[in-house]
Amino acid sequence: MSVDAQRLQDSLTYMATIGSGIYQIIACLYLLYAQLGGSAFAGCAVMVVFLPITQRIILASRRFQARVLVHKDARIKLQSEALSGVKIIKLYAYEEPLSKELKRLRNAELAALWQYKLVSVLSRVVYAVVPTAVSLVTFATYSLLGNKLTVSRVYTSLALFNILRFPLMMVPRAIGNAVEAMLSVDRIGHYLGSDEVTPLAKVDTDAPGVAPRVYAIAADVDWPRPTEDDQDDQDDQDDQDDQ
């Protein structure tokens, strides 16, 4: 339940992005159409084509980052155990196997870190290429249709495209988080709506006709007599307690 509660809390941050993002998309498309006509939809098509690529890069980056953290936690845990038990390691000559294990964990961490950095570089390249590709396709389409570009029209269109990038990237992610949040709400609701555990009934032994489960009648209870050694040990223990 703690995982579902944390997922629901994280998803609430993106809920408002759905409404505001759709509003920004509609407003930007209307203003771009007023500036460039039908050529604006060519640039929007390029942005839509790059959306799944960007989404895959983001998911891959998260996956590699989680892998880096797993290897890092394992390495730090082993280092902490080695430092806390360094005397035992030196006593039993565990330096070489410990060193090999630390090197293995460090190499695995570096390999995952290398993959994570490659994905980060790829994401930066994509983020740098997308605005240029959108501008080239839009203005090329606008010119091929026989229209004349002006400075004011170009700068206004570029500003609108920059505004349009954020909602086009965040709205699909917010919708996905909203779906996960609904699943978490269903799981939490099912848990909270479950029947309470019925407590065990208390047996009233004083009630008529009800007898205790365990009872003894005329029982003789004894135990072995202590020996002299046991008595001496008890006396020594009492002397230590007095001191």
Write the layout of secondary structure elements.
Elements: H1 2-36, H2 40-84, H3 86-91, H4 95-144, H5 151-192, H6 228-242
Share of helix, binned: over 70%
Give the amount of beta strand, in percent.
under 5%
Q: How many strands in all?
A: 0
Inertia-based shape: elongated
Distance between the termini: 53 Å
Mean pLDDT: 77
Summarize the helix and strand pattern as letters: HHHHHH
- Counting DSSP H or I runs of 4 or more residues, the number of helices is 6
Described by strand count, sense and barrel closure, the largest sheet is: none
Label the structural class: mainly alpha
**Gyration radius from CA atoms, angstroms:** 36 Å
- Report low-confidence residues grouped into runs of 5 or more: none
| Quaternary structure | single chain
Describe the overall structure.
- This protein has helices at 2-36, 40-84, 86-91, 95-144, 151-192, 228-242.
- With 243 residues, it is mainly α.
- The longest helix is centred in the middle third of the chain and has 50 residues, at 95-144.
